[in-house]
């Protein structure tokens, strides 16, 4: 899956606890433990900021020398979403994950050709969300806004050339 470039990423927020500590706390409340495979997965996920899918995570974990089952990866991803550490993005042809804990609220654009995901913040979108919510007596806790389409690089690469353009 293509990822956002460094210029497209948002700066992380300052947080008081590490993702691993927050996950341990979440699991303890549920009566579960932070096992070694779960610890490896949390570290692998939060060592870099990128959008990824479960298959990429399985590959990355195995490439780093850890033998963690696909089922454990899927169960841990679900738990990390429930814990508020990851956000699930349902893209056109796959489900991707991104850091939720420690990153500002933001929205996305997804190129359906190259799968690139671009993060952006726009105050006008939040103002519209708040105004619509007020009009309906609703208190928003968040929102998900995803623009799908074709990025400029893919548009240029796939645009038909006229004969005169080649002269």
Short key terms for the protein model shown above:
167 residues; alpha+beta; Arc Repressor Mutant, subunit A; three-stranded mixed beta sheet; two-stranded antiparallel sheet; 5 strands; 14% strand
If you had to describe this structure to a student in words, what would you say it looks like?
There is one protein chain. This protein is α+β, with helices and mostly antiparallel strands and 167 residues long. The protein has a single domain (6-166), classed as Winged helix-like DNA-binding domain superfamily/Winged helix DNA-binding domain (Arc Repressor Mutant, subunit A, Orthogonal Bundle). Helices cover 39% and strands 14% of the residues. The strands form 2 sheets. It has a 3-stranded mixed β-sheet, with no helix packed on it. It has a two-stranded antiparallel sheet with strand order 1-2. A hairpin with a 5-residue loop joins strand 3 and strand 4.
- Strand numbers in spatial order across the main sheet: 4-3-5
**Radius of gyration from CA coordinates:** 19 Å
Query: Averaging pLDDT over every residue, what do you get?
Result: 86
Instruction: Give me the CATH superfamily.
Output: Winged helix-like DNA-binding domain superfamily/Winged helix DNA-binding domain
| CATH arch. level architecture | Orthogonal Bundle
Tell me the domain tally.
Answer: 1
Shape: globular
- State the separation between the terminal residues, measured CA to CA: 36 Å
Q: What is the CATH class?
A: Mainly Alpha
Low-confidence stretches: 1-7
